């Protein structure tokens, strides 16, 4: 089953947007498989963003992610990776559509409140990185009301 690693970044936590953001995924109907408020270890932040390590903003990006606790979560569902990216909106919040999380709640790329995996493979890779303890298995009993 497809999973996406989604994370409320430190600015989202500080600004009190955790409930608002989780609510959007919850109401959409995806299944929550893991959730924690997390003080990110430096090695995890660096590994998470290693593909961007050659970028000029990499140091600031890692510093941003380490600037306070994050809310780490894993959501499951058919097409969840692409759908989460749509809910989140474009990387630059000024270019994000209104109605998306970044479009509604952020103004700068360096403070864009949320992360979502960009491919199913990265969903798996990032989940293993942030939740080595594993996911929670449970039955979503309203499934017949969400899926034909
Ligand atoms: P994530 O879901 O966080 O991975 O964002 P994304 O997939 O929309 O963008 P990308 O993976 O390319 O970049 C990861 C993060 O790096 C972004 O969410 C931004 O926080 C940050 N970032 C990307 N481009 C820039 C930039 O030009 N300047 C700064 N300061 N930060 C950037
Ligand atoms: Mg990305």
Automatic annotation (TrEMBL):
<feature type="domain" description="Nucleoside diphosphate kinase-like">
    <location>
        <begin position="1"/>
        <end position="137"/>
    </location>
</feature>
<feature type="binding site">
    <location>
        <position position="9"/>
    </location>
    <ligand>
        <name>ATP</name>
    </ligand>
</feature>
<keyword id="KW-0808">Transferase</keyword>
<keyword id="KW-0547">Nucleotide-binding</keyword>
<dbReference type="GO" id="GO:0006228">
    <property type="term" value="P:UTP biosynthetic process"/>
</dbReference>
<dbReference type="GO" id="GO:0006183">
    <property type="term" value="P:GTP biosynthetic process"/>
</dbReference>
<comment type="similarity">
    <text>Belongs to the NDK family.</text>
</comment>
<keyword id="KW-0418">Kinase</keyword>
<feature type="binding site">
    <location>
        <position position="91"/>
    </location>
    <ligand>
        <name>ATP</name>
    </ligand>
</feature>
<dbReference type="GO" id="GO:0006241">
    <property type="term" value="P:CTP biosynthetic process"/>
</dbReference>
<feature type="binding site">
    <location>
        <position position="85"/>
    </location>
    <ligand>
        <name>ATP</name>
    </ligand>
</feature>
<keyword id="KW-0067">ATP-binding</keyword>
<feature type="binding site">
    <location>
        <position position="112"/>
    </location>
    <ligand>
        <name>ATP</name>
    </ligand>
</feature>
<feature type="active site" description="Pros-phosphohistidine intermediate">
    <location>
        <position position="115"/>
    </location>
</feature>
<protein>
    <recommendedName>
        <fullName>Nucleoside diphosphate kinase</fullName>
        <ecNumber>2.7.4.6</ecNumber>
    </recommendedName>
</protein>
<dbReference type="GO" id="GO:0005524">
    <property type="term" value="F:ATP binding"/>
</dbReference>
<feature type="binding site">
    <location>
        <position position="57"/>
    </location>
    <ligand>
        <name>ATP</name>
    </ligand>
</feature>
<dbReference type="GO" id="GO:0004550">
    <property type="term" value="F:nucleoside diphosphate kinase activity"/>
</dbReference>
<feature type="binding site">
    <location>
        <position position="102"/>
    </location>
    <ligand>
        <name>ATP</name>
    </ligand>
</feature>
